[in-house]
Hints:
It contains 8 helices and 6 strands. The protein has helices at 2-9, 22-28, 33-53, 73-96, 112-124, 141-155, 161-165, 213-224; strands spanning 14-18, 58-65, 99-104, 131-139, 178-181, 200-203.
Amino acid sequence: MKEKKTEEARLPRHVAVIMDGNGRWAKKRLLPRSAGHKAGVKRMLSLVDQMFRRGVKYVTLYALSAENLARPQEELNELFSLLRAYFAENVQKLKAQEIRLSVIGNRSLLPTDIVQAIEAGERDTLNCGKGRLILAIAYGGRQEIVRAVNAAVAAGKQVTAEAFSALLNTAEIPDPDLMIRTGRETRISNFLLWQAAYTELYFSEKMFPEFSEKDLDAALRDYASRERRFGRVKE
Ligand code: IPE
Ligand code: IPE
Ligand code: MG
């Protein structure tokens, strides 16, 4: 019994994932990048299930960065289509699983119908309390910080770190314990810059569509073995 408790304590409460490598996954198979994004969405659906099933309470997924909006229009159209289909097919499923859906990022950069789908998805799952899925869409960490700074300036108040956190899109969401990036790159690419101050980082060589359930467990095991000190010394 005691051992089980220790295991649970070592499970990250909040996992953030930078889902990178869809394009390279497709290229290796001589497929168009769009096929990589399709395979990415498929893997995203199962990964979310696998994380909630293991007891993770908050899952944040980097689906589209603000900088990604500078990609060719053809690719953006593909990505927007996938987002539309995602909302149409998954909001009710999340609701049935008692998972609350939230979206962070700059919605004014997105097509109106997607903004409406986001708002409907957030509204429909507002009272779900078993877990929370946060999708970062048209998201940039620096942009989010600048929006919060401007909100603080407009309010004419000096802020504490806590008060500042509450001005971010992630107000009320605990900071991520673990951040996984697939796709072999070892950078954060403007994701959750403020929130990741003490997040444990895990980089996988796998391209996102091929990041398996076993790979997830390897990341969770690695997390469990880390010693989080938050600047203090070991007791
Ligand atoms: C991640 O895969 C998905 C998005 C950024 C939308 P990429 O599209 O960046 O794939 P690579 O990095 O080119 O392989
Ligand atoms: C980060 O991947 C954004 C998402 C996965 C949504 P990118 O492919 O955009 O990152 P860079 O350009 O390699 O830094
Ligand atoms: Mg990439």
